[in-house]
């Protein structure tokens, strides 16, 4: 099994290190041709507007969208969640592959970043650390989207079929439960 990590910016190395520590191959994805070589892809945190522009510049937007719609497992963390959402408050959407609406920087600026812990039964039998950095949250879930986690009365993790989204950054903790969960989707 080989997992790709979209490598325009953000937590690329951290995601790759976690995937590799679980005994799975990880590869940086920078162009369309590489999409045929992977079994799943992670869209890391970073700056969603920049990442969206780079998806357009590299002509990866439509091929990646088609792969996901045809079943390629994908996990978007923070900015990656924004890229995958059908709707973004006060902005145009990008890949539009999961029926959610999101609010960018929903908890505030960089100084408002925080850490929390939550029990997410689908992912772990014990509380796991959650790191929020200029994090979005989900403001609307479509009927077929499963809520996985709520923090401070806001939905911060969800899944529909092959699409997983989190507002937080599991790659910035030592805990591997979310990466294991993603691998179990493949």
TrEMBL record:
<feature type="binding site">
    <location>
        <position position="104"/>
    </location>
    <ligand>
        <name>L-glutamine</name>
    </ligand>
</feature>
<keyword id="KW-0663">Pyridoxal phosphate</keyword>
<feature type="active site" description="Charge relay system">
    <location>
        <position position="171"/>
    </location>
</feature>
<dbReference type="InterPro" id="IPR029062">
    <property type="entry name" value="Class_I_gatase-like"/>
</dbReference>
<dbReference type="GO" id="GO:1903600">
    <property type="term" value="C:glutaminase complex"/>
</dbReference>
<dbReference type="GO" id="GO:0042823">
    <property type="term" value="P:pyridoxal phosphate biosynthetic process"/>
</dbReference>
<comment type="similarity">
    <text>Belongs to the glutaminase PdxT/SNO family.</text>
</comment>
<feature type="active site" description="Charge relay system">
    <location>
        <position position="169"/>
    </location>
</feature>
<comment type="subunit">
    <text>In the presence of PdxS, forms a dodecamer of heterodimers. Only shows activity in the heterodimer.</text>
</comment>
<dbReference type="Pfam" id="PF01174">
    <property type="entry name" value="SNO"/>
</dbReference>
<dbReference type="GO" id="GO:0005829">
    <property type="term" value="C:cytosol"/>
</dbReference>
<dbReference type="GO" id="GO:0016757">
    <property type="term" value="F:glycosyltransferase activity"/>
</dbReference>
<comment type="function">
    <text>Catalyzes the hydrolysis of glutamine to glutamate and ammonia as part of the biosynthesis of pyridoxal 5'-phosphate. The resulting ammonia molecule is channeled to the active site of PdxS.</text>
</comment>
<keyword id="KW-0328">Glycosyltransferase</keyword>
<keyword id="KW-0315">Glutamine amidotransferase</keyword>
<dbReference type="InterPro" id="IPR021196">
    <property type="entry name" value="PdxT/SNO_CS"/>
</dbReference>
<feature type="binding site">
    <location>
        <begin position="133"/>
        <end position="134"/>
    </location>
    <ligand>
        <name>L-glutamine</name>
    </ligand>
</feature>
<dbReference type="GO" id="GO:0004359">
    <property type="term" value="F:glutaminase activity"/>
</dbReference>
<feature type="binding site">
    <location>
        <begin position="46"/>
        <end position="48"/>
    </location>
    <ligand>
        <name>L-glutamine</name>
    </ligand>
</feature>
<dbReference type="GO" id="GO:0036381">
    <property type="term" value="F:pyridoxal 5'-phosphate synthase (glutamine hydrolysing) activity"/>
</dbReference>
<keyword id="KW-0378">Hydrolase</keyword>
<protein>
    <recommendedName>
        <fullName>Pyridoxal 5'-phosphate synthase subunit PdxT</fullName>
        <ecNumber>4.3.3.6</ecNumber>
        <ecNumber>3.5.1.2</ecNumber>
    </recommendedName>
</protein>
<dbReference type="InterPro" id="IPR002161">
    <property type="entry name" value="PdxT/SNO"/>
</dbReference>
<dbReference type="GO" id="GO:0006543">
    <property type="term" value="P:L-glutamine catabolic process"/>
</dbReference>
<dbReference type="GO" id="GO:0008614">
    <property type="term" value="P:pyridoxine metabolic process"/>
</dbReference>
<keyword id="KW-0808">Transferase</keyword>
<feature type="active site" description="Nucleophile">
    <location>
        <position position="78"/>
    </location>
</feature>
<comment type="pathway">
    <text>Cofactor biosynthesis; pyridoxal 5'-phosphate biosynthesis.</text>
</comment>
<keyword id="KW-0456">Lyase</keyword>
